[in-house]
Amino acid sequence: MSRIGKKPVSVPSGVKAEVSGQAVKFSGPKGNLAWTAPEPIRMKLEGAAIVVTRPDDLPQTRALHGTTRALLQNMVVGVKDGYSIPLEIYGTGYTCKLDGRKLLLNVGFMGRGVGKPAQFVVDIPAGVDVKVEVPAARGNNEPAKFTVSGVDKQAVGDFAASVRKIRKPEPYQGKGIRYGGEYVRRKAGKVFAGGGAG
Questions:
Q1: Please, what are the domains in the chain?
Q2: 5: which DSSP letter?
Q3: Which are the contacts of 21, defined by CB distance < 8 A and separation ≥ 6?
Q4: CB 25 within 8 A of CB 17
Q5: Interval 183-191 mean pLDDT
Q6: Residues 32, 26: Cα–Cα separation, whole Å
Q7: pLDDT digits over 96-111, tens only?
Q8: Please, what is the average pLDDT of the chain?
Q9: DSSP assignment letter at 136
């Protein structure tokens, strides 16, 4: 990780960076991010780049060095271009829609009422946006589609993972929530041999 840490983090045009001790702030066209680096890592703004340094070669310090540099790079990309993760829902009758800052999902579970599907209501955290492109799946080949986006890579990834966990894709028909383009290894269903009277 130390080799990564030695690379300066370029601050592109359109992005403003402020470094004050262990604190760093970025602002760009997509939004703002702030973070405090762990001790004993040091950051310094030199021209249009941030240089990350460490005081020693202890394993923990080397790891923090590389991690800090990687997180700063992610922040720069986030405020400049943003992050997005497409998600797809496979399954007949499965749906997704928005109600303000809530994502409503019907993914095949049954509720307490007879024949009534259970609806999952997922609160969308601050700094994360959801856009529904296709609200309802048609069969197992035409999925419902929505995209999770935001400036914070970790927040976007965590929310997308938590939504996927509600109904992970099952291996027989592929029903469930999966990342866009995710390959689901399929299994053959059980075959029951018919027995004749003899």
A1: 2-80 (3.90.930.12), 83-179 (3.90.930.12)
A2: H
A3: none
A4: yes
A5: 74
A6: 6
A7: 999 999 999 999 877 6
A8: 90
A9: B
